């Protein structure tokens, strides 16, 4: 299956029509290893096709999030970041530089039925916080001072 079919099937699985602009947003996110902001997504999509307006891009992004195909990673005080939900993973956000990184998926235990009180769960994702590898103090820095 080539990349083009994969994007189309993913959209169809989410019950969305494959319009050229929606396709462009989804294809960009599926091919992007990082977590771009809405504005970065718009810039990339618009560069490839100048007919893609900011409003259309943002509307498509919102539709993709609602359909469960794109995850919005909320980082307080900073622009939300997005990634395609074709691969399950958790996230790590650096307290210092705000980097959003993927962490390998691990299963999260389901809360006890009685604690749910009638809520219906759809999904669960974790955000781990701390310092990224670039911001964390180096393990050997103390040794070097002596
Ligand atoms: Zn950092
Ligand atoms: Zn991610």
Characterise the protein shown here:
By secondary structure, the chain is an alpha+beta fold. The protein has 2 domains: 1-85, Winged helix-like DNA-binding domain superfamily/Winged helix DNA-binding domain (Arc Repressor Mutant, subunit A), CATH 1.10.10.10; 88-135, Dna Ligase, domain 1 (2-Layer Sandwich), CATH 3.30.1490.190. It is built from 6 helices and 5 strands; from the N terminus they run H-H-H-H-E-E-E-E-H-E-H. It has helices at residues 3-13, 20-30, 38-48, 54-66, 113-116, 141-145; strands spanning 70-73, 81-84, 89-94, 100-104, 127-130. The strands form 2 sheets. A 3-stranded mixed beta sheet has the order 4-3-5, with no helix packed on it. A two-stranded antiparallel sheet has the order 1-2. The radius of gyration is 18 Å and the shape is globular. Residues 94, 96-97, 99, 131-132, 134-135 line the site of one zinc ion. One zinc ion binds next to loops.
Task: Write the topology of this structure.
Layout (H helix, E strand, L loop, with lengths): L2 H11 L6 H11 L7 H11 L5 H13 L3 E4 L7 E4 L4 E6 L5 E5 L8 H4 L10 E4 L10 H5 L1
Parallel strand pairs: 3-5
Antiparallel strand pairs: 1-2, 3-4
Helix pairs in contact: 1-2, 2-3, 2-4, 3-4
Bound molecules: zinc ion (ZN) (2 copies).
The site of one zinc ion has 8 residues, from loops.
């Amino acid at each position: 299956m080539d990349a083009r079919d994969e994007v189309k099937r993913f959209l169809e699985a989410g019950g969305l029509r494959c319009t050229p602009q929606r396709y462009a947003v989804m294809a960009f996110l599926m091919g992007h290893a990082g977590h771009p902001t809405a504005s970065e997504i718009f810039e990339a999509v618009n560069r490839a096709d100048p007919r893609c307006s900011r409003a259309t891009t943002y509307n498509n992004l919102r539709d993709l999030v609602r359909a469960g195909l794109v995850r919005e990673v909320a980082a307080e005080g900073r622009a939300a970041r997005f990634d395609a939900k074709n691969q399950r993973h958790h996230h790590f956000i650096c307290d210092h530089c705000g980097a959003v990184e993927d962490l390998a998926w691990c299963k999260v235990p389901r809360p006890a039925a009685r604690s749910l009180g009638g809520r219906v769960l759809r999904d669960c994702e974790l955000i781990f916080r701390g310092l990224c590898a670039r911001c964390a103090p180096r393990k050997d820095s103390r040794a070097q001072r002596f």
